[in-house]
Amino acid sequence: MEKQTITIYDVAREASVSMATVSRVVNGNPNVKPATRKKVLEVIDRLDYRPNAVARGLASKKTTTVGVIIPDVTNMFFSSLARGIDDVAAMYKYNIILANSDENNKKEVQVVNNLLAKQVDGLIYMGHAISDNIRSEFNRSKTPVVLAGSIDPEKQVGSVNIDYVAAVEGATKQLLDNGNQRIALVTGPLDEAINGQFRLKGYKSALDQAGIAYDESLVFETEYSYQAGLSIFKQLQKAKATAAIVADDEVAMGILNAARDAGVKIPEDFEIIASNNTKLTEMSRPRMTSIDQPLYDIGAVAMRLLTKMMNKEEIDEKTIMLGFDITQRDSTKNNSDK
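-> structure tokens emitted (338 positions)
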């Protein structure tokens, strides 16, 4: 038998009070006699009444719901960010609607529109790039938006991330110090700002400081998947790369396993630095050195920034940069030689 939806009307009738009184109890309004509040809460408990967030939103013009757009729900990078978002949302009593965009531009626009149609109070967007279509949707809707782990080079949209230029510069320097002359940068599409404007800039800067000419044939654009990493290793060998900085941990894992399958020793013959320090970097053998982004914190701070925007609180800075580290493990020489 299908469970009947219990409404505010049922609670009011059962507790012999008005619907306005039930509403006041549910919303924590202090203007209710303690005895009445107790009676209403007992009925709510007994009937298992769940206030309808959307109906409540129609009255208050707020749905206390936040839309979170995730490019790939299976990728540990995004799931780690989502945990931080979810914990802070729960703390501030916001519900989350999670939407997977499959890293597809057309689908992203559709997903944004679907969430806005649900009257969400705010959006957190984890896509790697803001396309012009997405930007115009954001501008049109007037709904507060925060990027988590991504960058808006135009700084129109709030964002929480790390200094990707400094992170990749540091990783490249480490590989140069280990004696590598041909270091590959394996990243997503360069037309995405995070890759083409930030990661690439850090990579070029480190080479420049070491007096090494930039070689385009050592920069590889790839999709973020384990399969992509497996298939790109042959190209890395063809380019005579002796080390790689890899923008995604699944891709790094693919490169690592393809190298080992080809009999290439890591780190003696080939060094790898991953970028997200997800669980994969600990699970691989050898374990991978990685740029350590505080993924959980990025998600948590993004959600807190969004709550401030939704409540029209004062905001000092819309672009927030958190600190990062490089966690040393066994896929680079400096760690295994010690």
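Residues 193-209 form the longest helix (17 residues).
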